[in-house]
Design brief:
The chain is mostly beta strands. It contains no helices and 34 strands.
């Protein structure tokens, strides 16, 4: 029930493997000002923080079960660099699964990070970190959260069923976000308005259709579909500027009904969070009213 502490340069090169570490009021394992420590194949549960790394470099945390700790599962802070956190199960912790705070050039890869009380991976005031090939799901906040953090890489992760966003960036720039599978999270980019409005009847056959979104968007991997009432495809071009998608028919529209489908993932926000299926319906009626009787 006491913290296992590795402290100072003299402890560099320590291996901690095969232990059950639980019930510590502070960190289960604490690495402080120490390099080249390996923590592997341990069961680290029921502590305040599972593993804490402070002002330490080139440490390896791999193949551990780091679960059901009160606060963060793995907490990396205080200018800790070039640490490798890989192939762990990090779940059910009360705070973030992995927290990188004021720490650069660390790697978080091939972990299962699930059902934590905060973010799956929380990156704060840190740069040059790589978050790759993880399964990040069911966390109470975001899958990956970057705050005041630049030039990090978030790639090839499966990020799903988190309560808030799959990936959320605040005050952060020049991060590389690519090839992630992001789906079924609680908050995604969404359509806030359409012109013409859903169900509108208009008399302009050359009308362009605009969708306005909750935030800036980019093209995704899904597709747009424009059909008439007979389900015949309508040729069009599309363009995106900021938070607006514009659909422009190639030719004037005949009188009748039309529907535009924005299929799932057809656009994403700038972090890759996808749009769920959205659609809009309108009619063109250019026929002028006629007098059919007088009295």
């Amino acid at each position: 029930s006491s913290t296992l502490t590795v402290n100072g340069p003299a402890a560099s090169g320590t291996n901690i493997t095969g232990f059950t570490i639980s019930g510590a009021g502070e960190n289960g394992i604490n690495i402080n000002n120490t390099d080249n420590v390996t923590i592997s194949n341990n069961n680290i549960t029921g502590n305040s923080v599972g593993v804490g790394i402070n002002n330490s470099q080139d440490n390896t945390i791999t193949n551990n079960n780091i679960s059901d700790n009160t606060n963060n599962g793995v907490d990396v802070s205080d200018d800790s660099t070039s640490n490798d956190i890989s192939d762990n199960t990090i779940s059910g912790n009360g705070g973030n699964g992995v927290s990188l705070n004021d720490s650069d050039n660390n790697t978080v890869s091939s972990n299962t990070i699930s059902d934590n009380g905060g973010n799956g991976v929380d990156v704060d005031s840190s740069s040059g970190n790589e978050i790759t090939d993880n399964s990040i799901s069911g966390n109470d906040e975001n899958g990956v959260y970057l705050d005041s953090s630049d030039s990090n890489t978030v790639s090839n992760n499966n990020i799903y069923e988190n309560t808030e966003r799959g990936i959320y960036q605040v005050n952060s720039a020049n991060n590389t976000v690519s090839n992630n599978k992001i789906h079924d999270n609680g908050i995604n980019v969404n359509v806030t308005s359409v012109d013409p409005a859903y169900g509108a009847v208009i008399n302009n056959p050359n009308k362009t259709i605009t969708f306005t979104f909750s935030e800036a968007i980019v093209n995704g991997t899904g597709w747009f579909e424009f059909v008439n009432g007979n389900r015949e495809q309508i040729a069009f071009t599309s363009s995106i500027e900021g938070n607006t998608l514009t659909i422009t028919p190639d030719e004037a529209l005949a009188d009748g009904s039309y529907c535009i489908y924005l299929h799932t993932g057809s656009v994403t926000d700038q972090s890759g969070n996808p749009l769920s299926l959205s659609s809009s319906y309108f009619k063109i009626d250019t026929t002028a009213p006629t007098i059919i009787s007088t009295n």
